[in-house]
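Self-study notes.
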Amino acid sequence: MSRCVTVSQGALIASMVLAVTFLGPVRAQQGTALAGQKVEVSAPPGESGGADRGETAEYRTPLAGEPFHTVFMGKPVAIPAQNRGSVTALTLGGGGYLPKQGETSVTPIAALFLMRDWQSSRTRNVISIFVNDLEYDKSFGNLELVARLENNTVPFGQKDVVNDHEIKTSDTIWGTVTGSLGPGLRYKVAPFQVDNDLRLQLLGKAGYFYAKRTGDTGPDLVLPPETMLYGVKLRGRYDGMRRNLLELPHSGMAAGFDLDYMHRDRWADFGTTPDALFSKSNTQDYTQLNGYLMAAGGIPGLSEKNRILFSLHGGATPGKSADRYNAITIGGGPLPGETGDLCRPDYPGTMFSQVLVSNYALAALEYRRELAFFLYLHLRETLIWADRASVTATNRFFFKSSTGAATTIGLDTGFFWNSEIYLGYSWDSGFIRNGKPGSGLILIWNKSF
């Protein structure tokens, strides 16, 4: 992948494989028209176009999986119904930052998305080499056996960033591998598409944590010991949303939560100076709660081409148990839309894993306009409050309250070869860069097979 700006080696290589943060961009294109052609009429047979262009009010936005008929350049075009229960998609792209974040000006993105929904089982997998999220569910009526495997095992040093400068002495190689297994309940809900269900799962978790020094790690930085991890997760999901042809939320609601308890088997005090140590008694066991609520719908008095979307994400780590290695991660990337990605808190213009928080609340309000059945423009305002991780030049790691706002304009369009492009520009008031405003640009190409 060619680059015209300089990025730090570690951030470049890691970001190419850390696309699990960008699950949402895997909006599997299920048969869109060529974006270079002009829409004259955009409606199913027997319906005329929307009222915004002199057409009747009977216009209906084409929905994911359904057949669609239209006219291009005076010629009829038919898009057949698609099987949304079998998706293979490749995501490629990148994000750029001005001014740069730390030593990073651009981060490439790459991931493979696989989803299959069979009669008595289903699987959803995001594969990105060093970071993967794999799940397989076996159904016995409404009862399921759920198996998950997650790993974040980037073999490169990770540095903390403060005031847009990387703290070189904070460089550490660390990661986790976690497997989960347990029972779940799953019920189909309206509008009864492949992604519409109500799920409740109780999973036992076991994993491994490691942390290693690099040549840049500060001599006074004490790392936690490598250890086994044991815990339990209670996870709930509801998705009653209907998606459009580009798999963007069109109508309905979705909500979910994750309640996690984790025990670190071998543990010890770690950090730097005595007044900046994370004690074993506070951090060996921790509980985290994360949740979200999303809704999409029409605007009274306007045609279906105009949509409004609202989302709220929040999370908390009670007590003093949050640290560098278990903090909640808020990143950037395309806006969440795919059912398995709705839980991801997205703050536009942020690079992967830059923002670590112990507690947070993030709200977003978006207006979307359907310019053509394959072309959507959106304006989005995002507000955030968080107890955000910060670090000093002496590697003193702590959390402090921060607020911010980001304004985003984006374009989703169908493209050639059964693919989709997302282009977004964001302006941040200063949350990302510790009070200094900045901009981010992201370009994503999703190809379905």
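Second protein, same conventions, sequence then structure:
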Amino acid sequence: MRAVIQRVAWAHVTVDNKRISEIGEGLLVLLGIEDADGTEDIIWLTRKIVNLRIFNDTEGVMNKSLLEIDGDAIVVSQFTLHAATKKGNRPSYIKASKPEIAIPIYEQFVLQMESDLGKKIGTGIFGADMKVAMLNDGPVTIMMDTKNKDL
């Protein structure tokens, strides 16, 4: 499971010219799922995300977590995070899970993140043509991979 986590001043997701999710200060999480992902990956990643100390304290030091600032989150599925670009110029998405595997994992991830955060989070629509807008605050962007926790 791969995630790109962006600290945002605001973010929103639009599908068919309709805004379906919107947040103020918080995190936009782009999530890529592969067949090998499971509950252990979900729990590890959601807990890491909500506890990442990437928000400024009163001294301007990144020392507070999403939980501590009572921030919001949007999670958007993004199979392109598993793009393989080693050969040629056309990315291969062979490692990205097909919808029948990815959708239940994505839904479980959202529920776990809501549980860890203690409130509802915004989402995209799996497989839809989404327009994701955000103001990256910092900019702060962090990549995480449950199969490579050293990232």
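Instructor comment on the second fold: The chain has three helices and eight strands.
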